[in-house]
Records
---
Amino acid sequence: MRIGLIGAGRIANVHARTLHQTDDATLVAVTDPDDEACEALASKYGLKRHESADTMFADDEIDAVVICSPTPQHIEHILGAARAGKPALCEKPVAMETSSVEKLNKDLEGLDPIVMLGFNRRFDPSFARVHELATAGAVGKIEQVTIISRDPAAPPREYIATSGGIFKDMTIHDFDMARFFLGDIVSVAAIGQNLDPELADTGDFDGAVITLTNAEGAAATIVNSRHCASGYDQRLEVFGCSGTLEADNLRPTTVRISGRDTTAGMDPYLDFFLTRYEAAYARELDEFLSAIAEGRTPSPNIEDGAKALRIAEAAEESARTGTIVTL
Amino acid sequence: MRIGLIGAGRIANVHARTLHQTDDATLVAVTDPDDEACEALASKYGLKRHESADTMFADDEIDAVVICSPTPQHIEHILGAARAGKPALCEKPVAMETSSVEKLNKDLEGLDPIVMLGFNRRFDPSFARVHELATAGAVGKIEQVTIISRDPAAPPREYIATSGGIFKDMTIHDFDMARFFLGDIVSVAAIGQNLDPELADTGDFDGAVITLTNAEGAAATIVNSRHCASGYDQRLEVFGCSGTLEADNLRPTTVRISGRDTTAGMDPYLDFFLTRYEAAYARELDEFLSAIAEGRTPSPNIEDGAKALRIAEAAEESARTGTIVTL
Amino acid sequence: MRIGLIGAGRIANVHARTLHQTDDATLVAVTDPDDEACEALASKYGLKRHESADTMFADDEIDAVVICSPTPQHIEHILGAARAGKPALCEKPVAMETSSVEKLNKDLEGLDPIVMLGFNRRFDPSFARVHELATAGAVGKIEQVTIISRDPAAPPREYIATSGGIFKDMTIHDFDMARFFLGDIVSVAAIGQNLDPELADTGDFDGAVITLTNAEGAAATIVNSRHCASGYDQRLEVFGCSGTLEADNLRPTTVRISGRDTTAGMDPYLDFFLTRYEAAYARELDEFLSAIAEGRTPSPNIEDGAKALRIAEAAEESARTGTIVTL
Amino acid sequence: MRIGLIGAGRIANVHARTLHQTDDATLVAVTDPDDEACEALASKYGLKRHESADTMFADDEIDAVVICSPTPQHIEHILGAARAGKPALCEKPVAMETSSVEKLNKDLEGLDPIVMLGFNRRFDPSFARVHELATAGAVGKIEQVTIISRDPAAPPREYIATSGGIFKDMTIHDFDMARFFLGDIVSVAAIGQNLDPELADTGDFDGAVITLTNAEGAAATIVNSRHCASGYDQRLEVFGCSGTLEADNLRPTTVRISGRDTTAGMDPYLDFFLTRYEAAYARELDEFLSAIAEGRTPSPNIEDGAKALRIAEAAEESARTGTIVTL
C-alpha cells in the first residue's frame, strides 16, 4: 500500500511518522503549497514531491491518500480522491457547514468511495476499550455518558476567529464520542461560558456544558473548557444499568509523591494533543489500512462527520437562544 | 443544651444516636404520633415522651428542637419553635412549594428565629473540605462544578407518588451543593430521563441531567439516577482556573484485589445514606449546637431551602417544556 | 454484660468510649492508682470507682474486665481475672519476656480462663477484609506478605528507654499480622537501622526490615520506621499464587487536588493510632463480647501474644548478631 | 553514528526497532551465527550482514556496536569493541562470575573504552523520575527502598538450568536498582523460596526476599517471584525522611470498571518485558548515543555490572547458609 500525503503541516507530520513506523504501508509522496514544509517532510522520509493534490490523484504509483489540508479544501480533496478511485483518510471536520457536506454526498453518489474521517479519539486505547466493554454489555444498557474535555490552553485569538466556534472546533470531537456510545442524537441543550476575560471579545465561548439525548432517552453530558491548569483533561464515564466504565487522563509516569501536606500526588496530564493521542493516531491509521485491505467501509466516515457537525450547529443555536434544540 | 426531638422515624433515630454521642448537648425528649416508634426511641435513650410538638415547645426544660416530622408539617413546627423562642434544626425540604416558604417567611417576621436546614451534604468531610479549599482559593476562580449523584436503588413506587418528583426529592440536595459552591443560580437547563420501565407509569423521571449557571457565568452540572449498581454514587468535582478538586465515593475498606483479569478492584460504595453520610449528620449537628452557643445564624437556613426549592421547580419546568429557564 | 475497666489512661479511654457506644455491654466500674485520671473517667461515664483491681475481681456485679494497666502488671491482672472467673480483654503485650508468659501459662492451668489479647489490627476493617478474602482463597495459596508499618513520629526518648526495644514495642503488632496470615513462623532475618541522629544514643533501632518464613516457605516482610512525614503509614499486601490483596492507608477525606505541578494529591494519612484504628478497637471489643456470649475462646489470645513476643526476641537477636534465627 | 548489532535474537530485535526509529543514529549492520535470524533482521531493516563480530569490529564504516550475544560471549565482544576503539552497549549481565569481570577489567586497562551496560530499568520513565526527584531531595535523605519485582510467569525449566540462578538472572536488575538509589551495598540478607512444585527439582529458588544495606544504614528490600497472576509486577517505593515516592505498574489503558461486587477495577499489568520496558529501551539507547556524542562515560557501566553480580553472589550465599553476608 503506497500512501500519498496531502499537506505537510503539524498533523501531516504525525501521520508521516506513524506511516514510517508501520509495516503495513509505505509513505511515498507528499504535496503542500508551503514549499519549505513540503521539502522538510519529503527529505526527512525520502518522499516524492507532488506539485498538487491533483497530480497525486493522477499518479498510478499511489494507492491511497491521507488528507491533511486546511478544512476549506477537505471537500475538494475527498472528491478528487474518490474520482481517482483512491481511498482517503481525511482529517476532521469534513467541512464548516452541514450544507457543504450534503452537497459533497450528492457529488459522491455512484463513486462508492472509501473515505475515513479522522475522529482520532475513537482509537484512543482507553476510550476504545470502554467502547468495546460497553458494546459487549459489561455495564448493561448505557444510560448516561459523561465526557470531561478540556484543552490545556486556549489557541491564539487569530485561530479562534476562523475556527468556526468552540462547538465546531473543539466539542466536535466530543459530539463524535457521544455518538460513538449513544448513536444518533435527538436533543441538544447547550450552555456557553465566557470565563477568560482575554477571550471576551472573540465572540466565541471558552467553556460550555452540553447535554445530548438519543431516541431511547440515554443522555451524554459534555463539559468543555479552553484551558486546564493540569494539562489536557480528557476523561470519559459510561454509566449503565449494571455498572460504570471510566477512562482517566494519561500521565507521563506512574509516580506518586507523598509528603507532609499532600500524599499520592501524580504528574500533570499529558498536555499536547499529539502526545496525548499518539497511540490513537497510530491505531486510526491501522483501521484505515485494514479497511482498505479488507475492502470494507472504514469507520468513522463522512456520515459521522456530518452528524457531529449537525450537533455542533444545534449546540450553537441552543446556547445562543436558550432553548433545547430537537434534531 | 437540652434537645427535644420531633419525630421518631428513621432520620430521627440518626439524630438521636448522634445526640447521644456528643458531649455538647443532651437529648431529653421525643414526640411522635406513632406510639410504638416514639416509645422505642424514648426507652432506648431514656427520654421523656411529649404528647405533641406543642407541649414540647411549651416545655421550659427544652432548649432547642430537631424537627424530623413529615415534610407537610415542617412549616408548622418551624413556626411553633420560633414562637417559643427555641432554635430548630429542620430536615429538608422546608416545604413542597416555594409559595409556602414565602408565607412562612412572612409569618416569621419579627420573631428573629434560629432555624437551620438539614442539608447534610454540606457537612460531609470530603465535600466540606473541597468547599474549604475552593473558598481559600486553592484552585482559583470556580468555573465548572460537576456533581454525580446516584441513589443505590429507586424508592418504592408509593414513595415516588408523594415525593414531589425527582427534582424536589432527590436533586434538591444537589441544587444545594451547586449553590454551596456557586451561590445564586440564574439559569436552569434540565433533561429528564425515563430509563427504568418499572417506573415508567409513575409520571416521574428516574434520571436527569441539569445544568445551572450563576450570574458570573460559572456552571454546575448535575447527573442524577435513581439507581446505581455499585452503591450510593456521590461524587463532586470543582474545576477552577488554576486547578481541580475532586471528592470520590466512600467505601467500607481500602482493600484492592488483583487477579488474572482485573487489578486493583475495590469495594462497592457505601450504599445506605445513613452510613454514607454518618459523619455529615454528626457535623451538621455540631454546627447547629455551635451556632446556638455562639448566638449566630446557622447555615444553611430557610433561605437556602427556599432557593433550592425554586431551582427544583425551574428544573421541572425546563425538563417538561424543553426550554432553558431563567430565574 | 457489666464491664470493669482496669486503668484510666489513654487506651482505657478508648475502650470506655467504645463501651459507652455499644448496646451489647455496659461499662460500670473503673480503677486506677492515678486518682485524677480515674475520677475523670468515672465521672464522664457515671462509673463506680474501685480501689484496686482486686476489689474489682471480687465484685459480683462485674461480669468481665478490660485490662489497660501498664505492661508489667498484665500478668498479675490476667491471673486475678482468671481466678475470679471473669473473662478479660488484655492490652498487648502480655509481658516483656517469653519466660514470664510461660510462667503465666503454668499458673493458668486448670483455670480455663477466657482471655483475649488486644492485637487490635486484626480487627481493622481493611486488614480483616484482606484476611477474610485470603482465607476464602481469593488469591490462592499465600506466598508473600509485605507489611509497611511506620509511626508518624518517634515516641519520647524516655518512653523508648523502657519500651523493650522497637521489636517488642512496635513491630510486635506486625509480627502478629504476619502470624495472622502465615501461622507459625520458623525463621527470622532482621536488619536494624539507626537513621535519626537524635535517637542514636537510646541503644534502640529506629527503623528495621524483618523477613519471616513459615514451615511451608511463605515469607512475610516487615518494613518499620519510627517516623513518617505523611502520617501513620499502615499498609499490607498479600500475594498469592492467583492474585494480590492490598490494604492502603486511611485518610480523613477522599479529596484529590490537582494543579499545575501535581495532580490527584490526597490528604496525609490519619496520623494518630486511636483515630487510625478507631473502628478496629470497636470491632475488637465486639469479638470479646461475642466470644463471652457464645462461650468460646476469643482470638487472638495469650498464645498469640507469646508467639509474637518470641519472634520479637528472635528479631533482636538476628539484628544484633547478623544471623538468620531459626525458631 | 553508524551502529552494528551483534546478535539477532529477541533483544537484538528490540534494539533494531529502537535504532530504526531514532534520528540520532543509523543501524547499518548485523551479525549472528544463526543464519535465519540474521537474514530476517538484515532484510527487514536493509542491513549489511557481517560474518562475525570480528569483521564488524574491523569495519571502518561502523562507529559503535550493540552487543546482544549470549552472556558467555559478552566479555569477548566487549574486549573486541574496546580494542577496535568502538563504543559498546552490552546487554546485562557482563558475565556469570565476578572473577571473569575482574579479568576483563584488567584486559581493558589502558584501552579507555566507552562501554555501557544495559540495565534498562534505570531508564524506565517512572523509575527514572523517582530517581530524579529523590536525587533532587524531594523526600529528604533516603532511608528505605522497597522493590516489588515479579515476573508474569516462570521461564522454561531448561532456561532456569543455565540461568545462573534467580539472583543472577532476575534479581540482578533489582540489585542494580537498589544500587541506583543507595549506592554501594555492605550487607545482604536473603531468603530463598521454593513455592512452585513444578520447579522444585531445578535446584533454583522461585521466590526470594532480599534486604540490602549501605554504609549509612539505609536499607533496600526486594521481593521477587517467578510468577504473578496479574502480569509483570514492577513497583518501587523510596521512603525518605520527609516523604515517599512510589512508582506503580504500567497498564495498557486507564479504564476502570465498576459493578455490583467490585469497583474501579483496572487492566492487568503489561506482562511482557519488551512492552513493559519499551520506553526504557529507547531511553537507554539515547543515553548511549548521547554519551558517545558528548565523549563522556555512559552510566551504568561495567563497574555497575560487576557490583550487581557481587551482590547476587552474596545473596545466593546468604540464602544457602542462613547468614547475613557482609561485603
---
Amino acid sequence: MSLLTHYRLCPFSRSIRLALAELQLPVEFAEELPWEWRPEFLALNPSGDLPVLIRGNGVIITGSYAISEYLGEIEPHTPPDEIATTLFSGDNTARAEIRRLVDWFHGKLDREVTREMLRERLHSRLRSELVSQAPDVDLIRALRTNLRYHLSYVNHLADQRRWLAGDALSFADLAAAGHLSCLDYLGEVPWESYPVAREWYQRIKSRPSFRPLLVDRCPGVPPPPHYDDLDF
Amino acid sequence: MSLLTHYRLCPFSRSIRLALAELQLPVEFAEELPWEWRPEFLALNPSGDLPVLIRGNGVIITGSYAISEYLGEIEPHTPPDEIATTLFSGDNTARAEIRRLVDWFHGKLDREVTREMLRERLHSRLRSELVSQAPDVDLIRALRTNLRYHLSYVNHLADQRRWLAGDALSFADLAAAGHLSCLDYLGEVPWESYPVAREWYQRIKSRPSFRPLLVDRCPGVPPPPHYDDLDF
C-alpha cells in the first residue's frame, strides 16, 4: 500500500489525490501542515513541498511533477472503463499539450493567484505567526483580477474541447481542478461569469475521484454553501 | 529544422539550449524579450513563458517542462558517445529523482532567487518602465541569503553523486546550470564557499553544449571576468 503525505487545501496535493483516485490506486493518507517545516517531514522531502508519495516498496516520490509523471508511466490498477486510463494520453504532441497546461496551472496560476490567495485568506487564519496580520486588501484585489484572466482562459479551453487538453480527461484537468477547488473553498471563483468553465468544473466535480475533496473542511474557515453542491 | 524562441538570460531557455546541444539536435534560434509581451509571441504561447520550440513539422511545444519531456521521449540524433543519451535516464525511480531536482531548480530556486534577482539586477537595466526604480537592496540581500541555501544543497548533491541526480548527466544538471549560469553572469554566485558545487559547475561549463551560453552578453550589463573562464 502506498502512503500519500498531503495537505487538504494544497492544490498540488489535490491534483495527486485526484490522479490516484482516477487510476484507482489504493493509497493511505497522512496530513502535513505545509508551514510547520517539521524536521521529520524535511527529512522526507528537503524542499518542504507537498505532496510526497511513499510506495509500498519504500520508494519515495516527491512533488506533483515527479509523482504525476511516475503515475503516468505505471499501468492502471484496474481495467479501463470510464476512468482515465492514463494521465498523459495520446501521441507526444498531445502529451506536450497536456504538459503545457499542467505548467500553466501548477506554475502560472499558482504564481499569479493560488499561492498568495491561500496565504492571505487561509494560512493567515491558521498559522499563529500570521494571525495578527491584517489581510492585504490591495493584494487580494490584484489576485482576484488575475484569477478572472485565468478563468477566462479555462472558459476558452472548455469551449474548444471536451476536456481542457483535448478529448480525454488528463492531468491538465486534475491540475486545474486542484487549484480551482481550493479557490472555490474560499468562495473566490465567480463561476457565474464563466459558464463554460463552470460546466467543465461541474463535470469533474461529479466524478467519484472528487468526493473526498468535497468533504474536506478547515476548522474556523468554512467553505461557502455551494462548495460541495454538485448542481451549484 | 527546429526553431527555438528563447531569451539569452532566461534560465528556462538556457536549460533547453543545453538540452538541444547535448542531444545534438539541429536547431535555429530566435530571441524574444520576455517582458515585451508582443502579440505575435503571445499568439505562439499565450502564457508568455519562454522558451518555445517549433519543430520542423510545425508542431509547437511551449515551456521547459513540456519541451524537456518531449525531448526526453525522442531518440538522440547521433549515436551516443560522451553525450547524454537521454535527459531522463534510468528506471522510473531514477527518473523521479531527476524530476524532483528539476522541480527544485525550475520551481523552488526560481521562486526563491532567480526570478526576482533577474528582475532587480538585469531587467531593471533593460526595461524602460523599470529603469527609474531604485534597486530594492533589502530584497537583494534576502535573495542572496536564499541563494546560499541553494548552493549548499548543490554542494551536498555534488558531493554525494557524480552528477546532481545520479551517475549520469541529466536534465536536473541542465536545469541547475540554467539558473546558476544566469546568476553567475550577474556575479551573484559565491563559488569560493562551495568548492564541490564549483567543481560540478566547472565540469558542466567545460562541455561543448555550454559554449554558446558563455558568449552571451547583455548590452550595458557586462558579466564579471570569470563568467566565461573555464578555470574560474
